[in-house]
């Protein structure tokens, strides 16, 4: 067990630091303490009331940290509440707790659909610059751009990488913001994490675009008029292979 950490930081920040030090992904920690990955994500964002005190205790025990006596949370629920002023409606943004149809494929359906492709790594942190936010049918999604590397941790932000769908646990084998097996969103912005989602998305897309331009050595990116197969940056440099990015722009 790891040594106890200081209580100088809020408990959720201590927990995230301890989880990263232990090399655990959010999904792995959720499996150990008996909750959903979306609850771990929300908890680490500093949003209270989505995890029970018992689960907080299991998190503390698993990570070797002390849970403050004042730390409270609601009983584990199927998903976050909706309709609160200033909060993001859970169903609107593909919230991880909203498992589409509770679909659990028999066998590895995702592997059957992409038999020759290895499981792809993605960073589960919505704010990481390796993920491009976009709206599809009024729902917020995040497209992994393939900039996070293929090791244990994200080369952009240091988060532990995931390789499985947070809903059905099938290996991720197709590029996109949703699982090819169950259709669930790979990432979801924690409810209430930002006051103005559309403004946050615009700012995040601009930041991702700037990072992508610096990463590739190309100039400011703009949606090219050419077909997707010939997608290029404004200066003529070929775009990285991330099917679908040209549909969304960065404005």
Write up what this structure looks like.
The chain is mainly alpha-helical and 251 residues long. The chain has three domains: 7-77, 434 Repressor (Amino-terminal Domain); 90-208, no CATH class; 209-247, no CATH class. It is built from six helices and two strands; from the N terminus they run H-H-H-H-H-E-E-H. The protein has helices at 11-21, 26-33, 37-44, 53-63, 109-113, 197-216; strands at 131-136, 139-144. It has a two-stranded antiparallel ribbon. A hairpin with a 2-residue loop joins strand 1 and strand 2 (139-144). The longest helix is centred in the last third of the chain and has 20 residues, at 197-216. The radius of gyration is 19 Å and the shape is globular. The N and C termini lie far apart (47 Å).
Distance N to C terminus: 47 Å
Structural class: mainly alpha
State the order of secondary-structure elements, H for helix, E for strand.
HHHHHEEH
Please tell me what the overall shape is.
Answer: globular
For the largest sheet, list the strands in their spatial order: 1-2
Bin the helical content.
25-40%
Overall pLDDT score: 74
Domain module tally: 3
The number of strands is 2
Tell me the number of helical segments per DSSP (H or I, 4 or more residues long).
Answer: 6
Stretches where pLDDT falls below 50 for ≥5 residues? 1-7, 71-111, 221-234, 239-251
Report on the biggest sheet.
2 strands, antiparallel
Q: Could you tell me the radius of gyration in angstroms?
A: 19 Å
